[in-house]
Amino acid sequence: MKIGSEAHKELFCRDFVSTHRPYDPQNFPWPELTDHHLRLLRGIPFWGEALKVETNAGVMVTAFAKTVADPVLREAIALQGREEARHARLLEVMMERYGIEVERPVVTLPEQVETAFIDLGHEECLDSFFAFGFFEVAKRAQLFPEAMFTIFESILDEEARHIVFFVNWMTYLQIQRGQGAGLLRSARSLYYYGRALNRLVGSLKSGNTNGPGFTANGASALGIDLTPGVFVSTCLQENERRVNTLDARLLRPQLMPALFTGALRVLELFSPPKLRPRATS
Length: 281
Known about the structure:
The protein is mainly α. The protein is built from nine helices and two strands; from the N terminus they run αααααααβααβ. The model is unreliable at 206-214 (pLDDT under 50).
């Protein structure tokens, strides 16, 4: 199969649509939480940003799908819009059930929806990498009942599908527009990743755990003593595990695994990895 061909388009769209799972967040078996679990859940600082991101993503991706002429691409992108909106709905159901108070997001629709979709895709490739690791760390530490992690598996699985779909769509789009030369594609990808990284680094420097890249900053809120080596290695392992559930012929995001594989080698020279949950009172 030639990357950028009609066969490639049919594959990444068909794989995305066929792996969609229908569910209603309202019908999930939400567990009863102890007072300790409720305090922990309500103390996580990034729920407001997560709801804002998912709500606006649902509106933007749905609007972008309506501008796509190709019916195969339009179907897949519209499905992603529905999944993004469902992520927001899942968060709303959880917040209502467990009394999590956040400011409700104001929905904004950017003028250039294709550019916004491209920015979202690159940001998801970065943030999902951290989210996969963060989720696994919390799961290993048994911070919440197993039923809660089972529910949020739905979002993580869909984020893996989204980023794989995106990198294939982006590559296909560039080739179809005559921008298929490897060097040119790499330069454009680096440009968009640079924009996303700039937002992430700005958030980390400011100490804002409720901003872009929020999953990279949240371990302390859950009471976990976590070395950089453990976090990075967990992110790498979980990213590979999740994206590899999809068709092996599809492209995968490469930047974060490549960067952090190198970073892990450096970290391992200075600190052996360990994970130690803090004692709870």
